[in-house]
């Protein structure tokens, strides 16, 4: 496992924990639509689950699939964060902090997926 993969595992695990704490807090304070909160809980924790699955992928193509799904889930999570912010469930500081983490994860996953695609393409050209 490369250093980049270790970083993404750590970041997505920490992010899932943050999402779970945010979900609990907003639910207890009745600061968000229940359906919206369930959606962000699903997508926000799914990022790390897919990254974790990818660590034991059966092939590079399988790894790419898991990282691509994680990237899509991260993008969906960012959408729900923006919605919670727009509806006043998150203040400026809360939104900025968790959104920055989400953007960092999106950036890492984008790099991982691009690099993996390039590596797969190079391997296919050699065969």
Range of helix content: over 70%
Which term fits the overall shape? elongated
| Estimated structural class | mainly alpha
* Low-confidence parts: none
Series of secondary-structure elements, N-terminal to C-terminal: HHHH
- Beta strand %: under 5%
| Total DSSP helices | 4
Question: In this structure, how is the largest beta sheet organized?
Answer: none
Taking Cα atoms only, what radius of gyration do you get, to the nearest Å? 16 Å
Please report the distance between the alpha carbons of the first and last residues: 25 Å
How many beta-strand runs? 0
Task: Summarize model confidence as the mean pLDDT.
Answer: 94
Descriptive account of the structure:
This protein has helices at residues 3-28, 34-54, 60-86, 92-126. With 127 residues, the chain is mainly alpha-helical. α1 runs antiparallel to α2 (34-54), α1 packs antiparallel against α4 and α2 (34-54) runs antiparallel to α3 (60-86). It is elongated, with a radius of gyration of 16 Å. The relative contact order is 0.15. The model has no long low-confidence stretch (mean pLDDT 94).
């Amino acid at each position: 496992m490369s250093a980049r993969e270790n970083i993404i595992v750590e970041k997505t695990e920490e992010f899932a924990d943050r999402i779970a704490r945010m979900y609990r807090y907003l639910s207890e304070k009745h600061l968000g639509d229940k359906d919206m909160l369930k959606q962000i809980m699903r997508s926000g924790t799914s990022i790390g689950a897919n990254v974790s699955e990818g660590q034991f992928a059966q092939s590079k193509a399988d790894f790419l699939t898991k990282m691509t799904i994680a990237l899509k889930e991260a993008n969906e999570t960012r959408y729900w964060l923006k919605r919670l912010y727009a509806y006043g469930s998150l203040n400026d500081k809360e939104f900025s902090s968790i959104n920055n983490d989400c953007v960092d994860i999106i950036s890492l996953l984008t790099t991982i997926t691009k690099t993996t695609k390039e590596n797969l393409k190079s391997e296919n050209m050699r065969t």
